[in-house]
Amino acid sequence: MTTELPAAPAAAAPADVTTVAPADVTPDAPGGAAAGAATGASGASGRRRRAARAPRARRRPTLWTGPLRLFAKVVILGSLAVVGLLALIGRLVPAPDWAVAEIEGRVNAALAGQASVSIGGIEAHLGDRLVPGVRLTDVTIRLADGRPLAVADDVAAAFAPDLLLRGTFSPRRVSLSGARIDLTRLPDGTFDLPLAAGAAAPPGLSAAATVSPAEALAALDSLFSLPGLAAVERVELSGIALVVRDAATGRTLRTDNGKVTLDQTADSIAAAVGLDVAGNGAGAAAGVEARSGAGAGQPAGRIEFDFASRKNSPDARFEVRVRDIPARDVARLSDGLAWLGLVDAPISGLIRTGFDTDGTPRETVATLDIGAGAIRPEDGARPVAFTGARLSARFDPAARTVTFSDATFDSRALRVSAEGRGWLESDADGLPSGLVAQIRLSDLNADPEGLFASPVAFAEGFADLRLTFSPFSVELGQLTLAGEGTRIEASGRAGAAGDGWTVALDVGIDAIGSDRLLALWPVGVVPKTRAWLERNVATAELFDLTAALRLAPGAEGRIGLGYEFRGADVRFLPSLPPIRDGAGYATIHDNAYTLVLDRGHVTAPKGGRVDLAGSVLAVPDIRVVPAPARVELRSDSTITAALSMLDEPPFRFLTRAGRPVDAVTGRARIAATLEFPLKAKVPASEVAFDVRGVLTGVASDRLMPGRALRAERLEVTASPEGMAISGRGTLSGIPFDAAWRQPFGPGTKGVSAVEGDLELSPAALAAFGVALPEGALTGTGTAAIRLDFAPGAAPRFALASDLAGIGLAVPGLAWRKGPAATGSLRVEGRLATPDSPPAVTSFSLAAPGLSASGTASLRRDGGLDRLTLAGLRIEDWFDGALTLTGRGRGRPPAIAVTAGSADMGKARFAPAGGAGDAPPLSVALDRLRIAGGVTLTGFTGDFTTAGGLTGRFRARINGETQISGAVEPRDGRSAFRIRAADAGGVFRSAGVFARGRGGDLDMTLLPAGPPGHYAGSLSIRDIRVVDAPVLAELLGLVSVVGAIEQLSGPGILFSDVRGQFRLSPEELRISGGSAIGASLGVSGVGTYRPATREMDISGTISPFYLINVVGSPFSKRREGLFGFTYRLRGSADAPKVSVNPLSILTPGMFREIFRAPPPAAAQASE
After folding, report:
1. 1062 is in which domain, residue-wise?
2. H or E element: which one contains 122?
3. Is 954 in contact with 941 (CB distance < 8 Å)?
4. Distance separating alpha carbons of residues 336 and 350, to the nearest angstrom
5. Would 905 be classed as within a structural domain?
6. How many domains does the chain have?
7. Which among 448, 619, 727, 808 has the fewest CB atoms less than 10 Å away?
8. What pLDDT sits at residue 1142?
9. Is the pTM of this model over 0.70?
10. Does 629 fall in a domain?
C-alpha cells in the first residue's frame, strides 16, 4: 500500500544531485532475476540463491504487501523448525540448507511474484524463560522487476510459548537491524513498487497504484489481523539506512541510523520512527544552495515520526518532528506546506495531523523554525537571503486554507512579524500550484545593508497576494504599511526565471516627511539625486506620493516617482538662501527628476521676501554621475531683494558692476535658469546661468547721482558674459529708451555702458544742466546716446541725432533750421564728477546752411564755459572758427570769431531783443568780402548784436591798404562806414584805380535791395592822380597841355572828390561822381564790373577849374561852366576814350544834349 501525506508539486531536479544506489545493493539486469544474496555467518557454502522470475503484474502492490506476509510465514516455519530444539536453550542452531531453501521457496511462493526474498541463513534458539526465537540473516527483498528494495543484516522474532502450546506460530516481538532500503518517489507522489502481473492486492487495499489514507489505515489493520501477526506486540527496526530518490525534484534523501518502533494493543496500533538525515545543514549559508545528502561534514538532520490509530476505525494521529531538514523536503509533507518548496534552508519543528473517525483528514498544525538560508524560487535568479524565520500554520484540507500565526521573518535586511490566511490553488492533477493569501504584518523593520541610510520601521501592515510556485511569481494585489505617521500602499508583480528577476511594483504614500522619505529611499537608487535632496530639501511634508519600479533581466532598472510636498525648506544652491515654506510636486520619469515649486520664498539679505512660486529643478538624466541639474527660478519681489539675490554667489552681478543692491526701488519678476552638476561643492565656474526679468515701478535717485530715474517697466537679463537692463523711462523727467550693459570677466568690475535713445529738447538740455541761449534749440527730437562707465574715471558719453523735429538758431544770426529739416549732431564728452566738471571733447553739427565741429567745456553748474568750433560754416557767407564763451546763466555767450572768411554781402543777422540780450562779438577774420570784389583781410573788430551787428573794425583792402570802419544795423543787415588815410591806396588795393596817391577816404555803404547790394557814398580829400594814361589821353584830346605836364610830373591834385554809387556783387554803378582841383575838374557816371574789368563811364572834364568854376551854378555835378564831355568804354586796362570838342561851346546847363546816356541797370547786369 502507499501511505503518504499530500505531496508537493513536481519541480525540476537540481543539476548537481546524482541518484546513487546503495553501495551494498546491486540491481540485476533489466528483466533478470536477482543474484543470490550473500550467505550469513552460519550459512553453508553452495547454498542456492534464488530469484523469482515473474512477468509484471497489471496491478502494483504497495510497499507493505510482500515484506509483512513474508515475515509471517518465516515466523511460522521458523517456529516449526525449532520445536525439536527446545532442549538447546541459549544455543543458536542453524537450519540445514534444504530447510533454508524450503522456507525461501515457500515465502516466494506466498508472494506470488509481487516480490522475491532471498535468505542467507536461518538460526533457531531458545531464550530465557524458554521463549523460542528465530533469526534470519542476510535477507534481501527485491521488487517484481528484480530491483532490490531492502537488505537486512539480521531479522529476529520471539514467539509466545502459550501460543505455541496451542499450535499457533505467531511472533510476539520482531526486530530487524542493519536494513538498507532504496526507494524512488514518482512525480505523482507515489513510490515505485510495481506488482507482478496478475498479482492480487494486499488485504484492505485496491489494486490502484495510489491509495487514500483511509485505505492505508484499513490495510494496516488488516495486516495485523492476520493470524501470523495478530499476536505481535512490538516490532523494532534499528540501524536503518534509507535512500529515497525524488523523481520530481531530482533530490536524493539519505538517512542513517534509522529506528522504527511499532506497538500493537488489542484496540490500537502506534508507531515511532526516527531517522538521521545526512547533510541536512544545507542552506545555512545565505545564497549558497546545498541539498540533503550533499556530503560529509555538514550537520546531520533528523526526522521523527509518531503514529497512532484505533483499530477498525479511520481515527488516527500523526506527528512529525524535524530538525535541520531541508525546507523542500518538509514542503512535501503536506499540501499546506507546499510553499516551503521555494525556500532553501533547514527547518526544525513539529507537524501534527490525522483523520477523524469518519475518515476525514484532520487539520494539519505546524510549528516551524526555519534556519538561515534563502528564498530561491528558480535557479539563476538571485536568491533572497535571510537569517531565520518562525511560524505557526494550520492547514484545513477540506477548505484548502492555510492559516498563519506567530510568523516572524528575520534577515540582515528585514525583520517582520505576520499572521494571515491563504487559499491553496491546484493544477490539473490536483497538486498545489499556488497560494492566494491575506497577511497582516507587524513590527516591520527594514535595514538592508547599504540600501537605506538608517533602518525603516512600520508598526503594522496588510498584504493581499497570489503566489505561483512554478514558474515562480508573486502578484501583489495590495500592500499597506503604516508606521511613524506614514501609510504606504503598494501593488505589483514579481517573477523569477532562469535569467533573473522581473519586478513591476507601484507604491503610493498618503503623507510622509522628507526625512522619512529619504529613510525609505534606497541609497543606491539614483544616489546623486538622493544626496542632493538630503542636503537641500529639509523639514518637508510629502503627500500623495506614488512610485514605480520596473526590473527585467538583462535590462536597466527603471524607477518612477511622484509626490507633492509642503512646508519644505529647499536649497537649490549652497550659496543661495534656502527656500522656506515650499510647496509643490516632484517626479522621476524616464530617468529624469523634476521638482516644481508652487509656493515658497526666500528672505534676501536685503529687500525682504522673494516669492519663488513656479520655480523648477530638473535633472535630465539621474544616471549620469555627477548628474547635471537645471534650475528654473521664478521670483517676484522688490527690486532690492532681487538684486540682493543676484549679488549672491555664484552671480555677484552688482558687485561686479560696482553698484549697490539698494540703489533702485520697485518690483521685480525674474526668470533665471541655472545649470550645474549635483555634487557637494559646486564652484562658480561650473554654474551656467541665464537670467531674464521685468522690473516695474522703477525709481532711483542714486543710480546716477543728481538724476531722478523713473520707469514703468524695464527688462533685465544676465548671463556669464554680462548683465543688461533695458527699457523706456525718464531721467530727470526726460524720456529715454535705453539699455545698461555690464560685461563680466577679468578687468570688467565697474565697467558698464548705457546705450539708447534720449529726448532732445530744451527741457532735456535744461534737465542735464546744458544752458543754451534762449531760442537756440526748440522743438523735440531724439538723440542716440551712449554712456561708458569705468572705475575711477568720469563717465563718458556720445550723443548722435538726426535733428528731426528740432529747431536750431545761432544767436545774433538770421540762420534757422526748422523742425521739419534734418541734419546731424554728434557730441562726445565726459560727465561731471565731484572732481571735474563736464566736458565736450568732440562736437559736430551739420544742418541745412550750417555745419560746425569743435569741443566744449562746461561749468560745474552745467552752464557753458567755452565752446570752440574749429570748423564753422554758415550758409555761403562764413567759413571759419568760432568760440563761444559762457557769461553765466541767463546771458548769451560771448562770441569770438577767431579765423576764417566771410561775405558781408550775404550775411544775415537777426535782431536781438534789446541791448541787454546782445552778446559781445569779437571778430578776427582772415578775409571779409564786402562787395564788388572788395575783400578785407586781417579783419578785426569788436561788435555787439544789440539791434543788429554794431561795432568797429580794422582791416586791409585785399591785404594791402589799411582801413578802419564801423558797422551798424540797417534794416536787418549791416551798414558800413569805412575810413582810410590813403584813399589812393584803397582804390589801388581794391583794383578800382591804381593811379591815386594819398587822400583821406570816408565811405559809407548802406544795404540796398537784395543781400550784397549797397548804396554808397564817398568823400576824399586831397588825393593826387599821377601817371594816369586814360586821364592823360583825355587831357591830350582837349589840349590841356599844362595839366598833362602835371599828370606826368607830381600829379594832379584833386582837393575834393565826391560820389554816390551802388555796389553789388556784379558791378559798381556810379550815379554821381566828381573830382575837383585847382587845374582840373572831372565828373562821371557809369558802371564798372570787377569780374571782367569792363567799364562804361561818361562825364565832363573841365580844364582851368578855378576859372571855370565861376559858371558852376549854371552846370550840374560841379562841372564848371565850360567843359568837354567824354566817354570811357571797354577794358579798364585799355579803355576806348572819346571826347566831344564841341561840348566846350555848350554851357553846362545844355551839356546834357551831347552827353551819352548811362547804361541801364539791366544792361549793366548782363
Report:
1. 1026-1164
2. strand 115-126
3. yes
4. 14
5. no
6. 1
7. 448
8. 63
9. no
10. no
